[in-house]
Each structure stands twice: as C-alpha cells, then as structure tokens.
Amino acid sequence: MSDAAERKMQFLYALRSKGVTDSRVLTAMEKIDRGPFIRGIFAARAYEDMPLPIACGQTISQPSIVGLMTQALQVSARDTVLEVGTGSGYQAAILSQLARRVYTVDRHRRLVREAREIFDALQLTNITAFTADGSFGLPDQAPFDRILVTAAAEDPPGPLLAQLKIGGIMVLPVGQSDTVQSLIRVTRHDTGFDYDELRPVRFVPLVEGLGRD
Ligand code: SAH
Question: Which residues form the catalytic set?
C-alpha cells in the first residue's frame, strides 16, 4: 500500500474509533483531503487527529470533532447550511459534500480569502464565504436549515436562533472560552427550541466585530 493510502486508512480508522459512524460523513471526509487546508510547518501533520494552528492565531479543529459535529447536524442534500467560523475552510468543504448550499463567515478577511482560494481550486462551487461578524448570522441569506458554529459563545446568539428554520438544527459549543465547553444541539420546533448536550469540547472564542487582518 502507498504511504498516502495507508495514511488515509489510519485517518478514517481514527474517525470511526472516536464515534464518527455516519457513512455519508465518512465518505465526505474521505473525499476532502485535509492537507491543502493547512499551510506551513504543520502541513505534515494534517492527517493526525489533532487540532492545528492556522493563520490569525486560530485553529483548524480536530478531524474527529469535525466528523462528530457534522454527524450531529444531520445534513440532507436539500439543505442550506450556515457555518460561523470559516477558519481554514475545512469544515465548510466537508459540509459542501452533504448540503445543497453552504454559506460560511469569518471575522478575519485573510482566512476568508485563503479559504476561497482552496474552494476555487477544489471546484467546491456551492460554498460562498463572507467576511462578517457571524454572531449576527447572514440576514440576507436566512433562514437556514442547519447552522454550525465553530467558535464558542456563552449562549447561542439570538440572531442565529432567529435565522434557523422551523425543523432546523444548530450545533455549537457554549461556555467560557478558557474552560471546557459543551457542544450542544438546538432543534427549532413550531413552538420553541429543544436543547441537547452532546459532549465536552474546546474551541476558540466567538469574538465580536471584525479582525484586523
Ligand atoms: N471551522 C474552522 C475552524 C474554526 S476556528 C475550520 O474548519 O478550520 C474558529 C473561527 O471562528 C476562527 O477562524 C475565528 O476567526 C472565527 N470567529 C470567531 N468569532 C467570530 C465571529 N464573531 N464571526 C465570525 N467568525 C468568528
């Protein structure tokens, strides 16, 4: 077996052993190579199940957490999805394989520009990336079937709850930024919201306003 094939097998094995069992999610993660989303000295570690530093002091999430969050979101092929926290663009690329349309926003212009370059190179034409404060959602594109937030807020931001369709699902980490947070799933019903706590996680904080770069 080639080194690349062996690496891919180990990558998928690590995902399964951490509970990523949804076959559509595994297929998407097999297809989208994490390598191009990591630049510089950490690129060699792209296939390890660990978070890694990216530009602007941010991190690309651990692949098994990307898999578990994507699985919890229960995306279907007709869905319009909003991701808050583009970062490297890796999570958005995985979502693009499962959804009809993906909108992703980050407060750092540079991250959005670099992620767009990768989406173009990979011809992921159903992703649109914006520079914006994602805690306000995207009023012009709302409502969404699914919302995934990849930075931690103390509580689910009100505008995101308001931009979720009835029957829609939002997955997000909540809690203080310097401690362990909880990954929760919010489901919107016609009369309100249901909250499920999924697991402890650790994400960078959701920060107000735009970044300097
Ligand atoms: N999903 C990313 C990892 C995200 S790291 C990936 O697959 O690589 C969290 C990201 O959230 C960071 O890039 C950070 O800039 C962004 N972020 C933090 N607060 C934000 C806000 N209010 N609006 C938009 N993006 C925000």
Answer: 61
82 CA distance to ligand 1 centroid (A)? 12
* Domain 3-201: CATH architecture, name and number where available: 3-Layer(aba) Sandwich (3.40)
- State the pLDDT at residue 42: 93
Q: What is the DSSP letter of 148?
A: E
Confidence (pLDDT) at 4:
85
Taking the CA atoms of 105, 170, 49 and 78 in sequence, report the sign of the dihedral they define: negative
What percent of the chain is modeled with pLDDT above 90? Answer: 91
Non-local CB neighbours of 105 within 8 Å, separated by 6+ positions: 82, 83, 84, 85, 86, 112, 129, 130, 131, 132, 133, 134, 138
Domain boundaries, the chain: 3-201
For residue 59, the ligand 1 atom closest to its alpha carbon is 5
pLDDT at 3: 86
The model's pLDDT over 120-149, given as tens digits with 9 standing for 90+, comes to: 999 999 999 999 999 999 999 999 999 999
Ligand 1 centroid vs 19 CA: distance in angstroms? 24
Going by C-beta distance under 8 Å and a sequence separation of 6 or more, which residues neighbour residue 41?
Answer: none
